[in-house]
Amino acid sequence: MTPDSATWLLMAAIFCPLICGTVSLLIPRPFILPRLLLILCGPIGALLMLGHFTFHSGVGGDTAFVEWMPLLHLNIALNPDHLGLFFAYLVSGIGVCIVLYARGYFGKDADSLFRFYPYLMIFMTAMIGVALSDNYMMLMMFWEMTSISSFLLIGWERDTPLSVRNAMQAFIVTGAGGLCMLAGLIFLGVHTGEWTITGLLQAVQHHQIDFGATPMKVCFVLLFLGAATKSAQFPFQFWLPGAMAAPTPVSAYLHSATMVKAGVFITGRFWPIMAAHLHLWPSIIVPLGAFTMVYGAFVAIQKTDLKKIFAYTTVSQ
Fold it and tell me: Measured over all CA atoms, what is the biggest interatomic distance in the chain, rounded to whole angstroms?
């Protein structure tokens, strides 16, 4: 498989759910079965394209790259390594189950299915994009798409003040963390001259970066804030229980299976770069993660509402 064909195959896997969700808006509301079949093409199509790429190119191969706006460091750069492909398969595979579950959850409510599936597909595209992105700015675009789609889904009951408040709370917390992460990535790019994660890793391996410098420590703190808010780590764990006010398919998919894993994913992405050279990284992440794990489990065992238990065990795990 040529680099160009690999790039476009991965891009098709990313945007397949979004395209299917958008086209589904053209189907009249009463036609539930055609809508379901079309929406299923989103995650199944992504799985097939990822499988085709993996079969022909293997796992952990070269990054896919298309030059777009090099002066602004805006290029299409994808990294289908072990970690990225694992999360992409996870998002699309569980996505198939959630699409089917949502059909049963909403039943014959054609109006809700008409509105729900496009929101869900936006989120699915955003998460696959986060998993495969290598360029900092491309990563941030998909990262913020997860916050926007999450806001739309948490605030599902638009006429209920509590639902709207919970959606705004989640959006503000994760959005503020996203701004910190954006600042950290820009700072990292300006300081190192590398605007892709793989490029940064290569520079680290060739000892071209001074991790003792203050800018690198600032970058770490900003990146950690972005990851911690998205994964509801202490002290940002308070937004997740409120987000469980969303419909159950949203709670199962966004706030347990995928979105809160985005912070875990980013931590894993930068771990080989930061952990070996910046001792501040593990010394802060491990204690806070351990405290959050114990705290979430302690609160969960005191709850009697199923969704609250679901929320705090998610915070913990």
Answer: 62
| pLDDT tens-digit readout, 252-305 | 888 777 788 888 889 888 888 777 667 777 788 888 889 999 999 999 999 988
Report whether 196 contacts 77 (CB < 8 A). yes
pTM metric for this prediction? 0.91
The DSSP code for 69 is E
Residue type, 231: S
Question: What is the rounded average pLDDT for all residues in the chain?
Answer: 86
Q: Kind and range of the H or E element at 68?
A: strand 64-69
What lies within 8 Å, CB to CB, of 32 at 6+ separation is: 103, 108, 110, 113
Q: Strand pairing partners for 254? A: none
How far apart (Å, rounded) are the C-alpha atoms in residues 226 and 287? 17
| Per-residue pLDDT tens over the stretch 195-221 | 888 888 888 777 767 666 677 778 888
Is 140:182 a contact under the CB 8 Å cutoff? Answer: yes
Upper half-sphere CA count for residue 295 (Cβ side, 13 Å): 14
What are the structure tokens assigned to 207, written together?
């000892």
Pick from 36, 148, 98: nearest CA to 250: 98
Hey, what's the torsion of the CAs at 41, 44, 45, 48, to 10 degrees?
Answer: -160
Instruction: In whole angstroms, give the CA distance from residue 288 to residue 42.
Output: 37
276 token code pair = 């070996």
d(CA 119, CA 18): 9
Note whether 100 and 43 are within 8 A (CB).
Answer: no
Q: Which two tokens stand for residue 102?
A: 């949502």
